[in-house]
Amino acid sequence: MAFDGITTKKIVCELCTHLIDGKINKIYEPTKNEIILGIYSKGSNYALNISISPDSYRINLTTHQKPNPLNALGFCMLLRKHLIGAKIKNICTIGFERVVYINLECFNELNDIVNKKLIIELMGKHSNIILTNENNIIIDSLRHLSKDENSLRDILPAREYEIPQNDKLEITSIKTFDEFYKLFIHENDIVSAISNKFTGFSKLFIQALLDNNQITNEINTSNLKAIYKTIFSIVHNINTTETSLIKYKKDFSVALTPIKNNLQANFFIDDFYFEKETNLLFTTYKNNMLKLVLNTLSKIKKKLANINKKIEECQNMDTYKLYGELITANMYQYPKFDADKICLLNYYTNQQITIPVNIYKTPSENAKNYYKKYNKLKNALKVVNEQKKETISELDYIQSIIFEIDWAKSLADLDEIYSEINENTLFERTHLKSNAKITKQKNKNKKLNKEYVPIEYKIENFTLLVGKNNVQNDYLTTKLARSNDIWFHTKDIHGSHAILQTRGETPTMDVLIRCAQIAAYYSKGKMSSNVPVDYTLIKYVKKPSGSKPGFVIYTHNKTINVTPNINIIM
Predict the structure, then answer these.
(1) 418 burial class (0-12, 13-18, 19+ CB within 10 angstroms)?
(2) What is the rounded CA–CA span in Å between residue 333 and residue 336?
(3) Where in the chain are the domains?
(4) CATH classification of 5-166, choosing from 3.30.1130.10, 3.40.640.10, 2.30.310.10, 3.30.360.10?
(5) In whole angstroms, what is the distance from residue 462 CA to residue 511 CA?
(6) Helix, strand, or coil (residue 100)
(7) DSSP string, 307-351
(8) pLDDT tens-digit profile of 194-235?
(9) Which helix (H) or strand (E) holds 5?
(10) By CB distance 3.0 to 4.6 Å, which of 199, 300, 506, 560 could disulfide with 168?
(11) Do the Cβ atoms of 29 and 73 come closer than 8 Å?
(12) In sequence order, what are the beta bridge partners of 553?
């Protein structure tokens, strides 16, 4: 990431314009790597977000709310003890180092004014938040580090705070272009050379300057003059609105781009990392949920395999019945058995048949055993056939959940799916975390139109609603739709329920085709052609009592074969 020294400097310059003389009135720790300071300054409330996460370390003002844990962690409690009511006297960095110093004026236990310092070190996996007193002694830190554990410094309570050492040059120490030129004349490329020699300049920042100013990476006088002029223009204007943060590829960089908002960099960083963290959270949440569902799918498939094996065993039941009949019919020939097999005439086929027998039991007992096996398998077949029917239904339902997860576009979509599977006994009880609120259907008799927002399309004078998951499908079909609305669903293919709200009007065939194309698009047949889509009036669609979410039966339907077309529905 490009949260380098120059970015840190830009952020801090903006913070100084708004937070100096502000008072800290709230402190909370939403995650183990984050501290939020609530600050009241110049008639406005601000939230200063400090993150030391290895892949998203930063300091910036934020407008995005984060959860406040009910039980505060130890470092958060310590900060509350020392810093609630503290006044911010200064916010600064030393040169272009990624270390931010917040100087604070606080009150001690005797109500005397004392000075303390909150130090934020933004150095990748070595990032830290440290509180020191007026004598530069560490009161505590979010992460404790020790030389005994191969750390270069002791970051422990009651130890003196040491500034991180850096052997790079400060850009402000360069006074002329000749000094700048001499540093690079024997280097291979501009990006690596500048990044390696100067503090605070990442390779991405230098590469962005080259690209934005159409400078090549080759070391020569012309290129060095151009990059020298650009860097010093940014450095000299870092505390003005002549510089700002801009998007660069999938990252960001400081650029010489004038802006009007003097908090542009802070809110740029805020939105950038919020989107990044949301996408990461969405992917993690989705993958964990998919893993849970696929594990359940694997178990159900094994269950079905065992059922099929039992059904296969039951295929022998008629053989056992035949053995019992033949032994009974020929019992007069055998007072007892002298061998473990007997050969009898099968009067159904007029052929000899060999029957295994137990020589320690009478012919009558052998016949009874075979009848008993027959009746046992006959009864078992009825049970396993019912089990197979139910298991196939479970497999179909799980496949519909997988379809829903694949189609989910937001954390809210995943939360609705999670609520559905968490209430189903098929799935293991688990706790998948997301920052979005998990909607739970506490009362199925309540109206849900405020909780579930389906996908909506306008087609001429009609509205088509498409469910995002099984619960929404049930809501659309059984609660929201009216009897004369038209229901669409792909034939024998997992997909969403689509409801055309007719309001008593009769849609044209062109409208029906477009609705079918949308229904086909929101199905597993999205990438196929000539997809069959059934449609019928809502009054002919019924949900059997006790059936799984999303399952319905319907009659009086017609079928349209369509090819999903993204141009029609977007």
Answers:
(1) buried
(2) 9
(3) 5-166, 171-255, 299-407, 455-569
(4) 2.30.310.10
(5) 9
(6) strand
(7) HHHHHHHHTTHHHHHHHHHHHHHTGGG-SS-SSSEEEEEETTTTE
(8) 999 999 999 999 999 999 999 999 999 999 999 999 999 999
(9) helix 5-19
(10) 199
(11) yes
(12) 542
Q: What letters, b where the CB count within 10 A reaches 16 and e where it falls short, cover 264-296?
A: bbbbbbbebbeeebbeebbeebbebbbebbeeb
Query: Model-level pTM greater than 0.85?
Result: no
Buried b (16+ CB within 10 A) or exposed e, 116-133: bbbbbbbeeebbbbbbbb
Q: Which two tokens stand for residue 22?
A: 């502000």
3-state secondary structure of 255: strand
Q: 83 and 115 in contact (C-beta within 8 Å)? A: no
The helix (run of H) or strand (run of E) holding residue 532 is strand 531-537
Q: Which residues contact 378 (CB under 8 A, 6 or more apart)?
A: 314, 317
Cβ-count burial of 519 within 10 angstroms (0-12 exposed, 13-18 middle, 19+ buried)? Answer: buried
Q: What is the tens place of the pLDDT at every residue in 232-261?
A: 999 999 999 999 999 999 999 999 999 988
Contact call for residues 60 and 11 (beta carbons, < 8 A): yes
How many C-beta atoms surround the C-beta of residue 562 within 10 A? 24
Tens digit of each residue's pLDDT (9 = 90 or more) over 21-79:
999 999 999 999 999 999 999 999 999 999 999 989 999 999 998 888 888 889 999 99
- Give the C-alpha separation, 474 to 566, whole Å: 25
